[in-house]
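Q&A log
Question type: sequence-to-structure
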Amino acid sequence: MLLNVKTKYGEVQGVVSEGGYALFKGIPYAAPPVGELRWKKPEPPIPWEGVRICDEFGPACLQEAAHLKPGSFYGKEFFSGSDYPPKMSEDCLFLNIWTPARSADDKLPVKMWIHGGGVQNGYSFEKEFDGDAIARRGVILVTIGYRVNIFGFFAHPELTSESGHNASGNYGILDQIQALKWLRENIAAFGGDPDNITIFGQSGGGRSVQAICCSPLSKGLMKHAIVQSAGGISTAAGRLPREKVELQGIKFMEYIGCKNISQMRAIPGEELLNKFLDYMKEHSLGMSTFNISTDGYVLPLSLEDSIIQGVHADIDYMLGNTADEGRILGMLHPERMMASLRGWARLQLKQGKKPAYMYCFERKLPGDDAGAFHSAELWYIFGTLNRSWRPFTEADYKLSEQMIDYWTNFAKTGNPNGKGLVEWTPFTDDFPCTMKFSIEGNEMTDYSNNEKLKEFEDQLLNSQQ
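Response status: OK
Response body:
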């Protein structure tokens, strides 16, 4: 077991996870993005002397804890208990590693998880995330924190001018790319293969995965990608130009009474967060205020147009959604998300790229009538059903084991198939099918005759013309 590892920046010592694997919590992958580094691209970590004991998760990025309070649906689902709210700080660029490697020569495949939350909240060590079930299959799991909300996606003309590349915003995506660079440099020491990294994420994390795949800054850093309940050719925040985010940045600066970015950088993080939350509530603003934008540097084109024009990375993709995406959020039609992702899958074929593997998670979770809601699959792909309040059955645990097998097989080879699993064929024009996950049995399913799906596919097709 690798409990002491020398990274490029210093030695780290991990702990033994509940499953008996080496677990390193809270490794800094970048310098603290505070003070003069607020709203700048991440810098490499500050080296340290001696051994850094990695037995505590690093802080979550500052965010509105009330949004995730236990009284809300998602609060009860994922953010209740004595561990919530977590420690929060603007100094939040840490990652966690679960590794089953016995030596630095093992060259195991690596999965890097990007948490969801609309790039406004969430963190790398939520209770539904864990690496033991993944490590048991010979795959290293890495979960990362990154800057969210005002800290990760604020833009302003002054920041654009000072940047050196005529862009601002998308600092959270730059953080994620920095984490990938850190893995390229250091994961071999943890027994990982730097040439076999899979990035995966859900919701805002799924859009982040798409952003990384569409960014010229990430070329060669990953081999496979999984986008869950997000993305495609019609994304949640839409085609958001940097100029629109900059305009909100100007208004926000005026709102808080600052004259320049230097004054804004002098505001303590907690105070800045509260001012941002007040501003959002007072003006009834939504998630597109400070979010992933077409900044001209990280993203020369929007997420949608990058896929449509085929400039995204030609790697292996798994794309999917849940059957009841909008039941809790009250804003998303699952057919629209599926149509968006099917549009991506069709373009993969038209552009001569690798065909994508598509899925739909249809298990309606027991315990209430929320169904296969947005985020429902997370318990299953991390094997953490025992941490949930829900009365999961033996069939749920079996489904979870199967899904983890598919996900880790994909990380190993770019193909999710393996012994004892229903064959999952990629999406093609001749066989436009999707793997349906349910406790009744997984099966390849053609959703093409779904009338609502066809309606959204026609809308998306017409919008491109």
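Response note: The longest helix spans residues 394-413.
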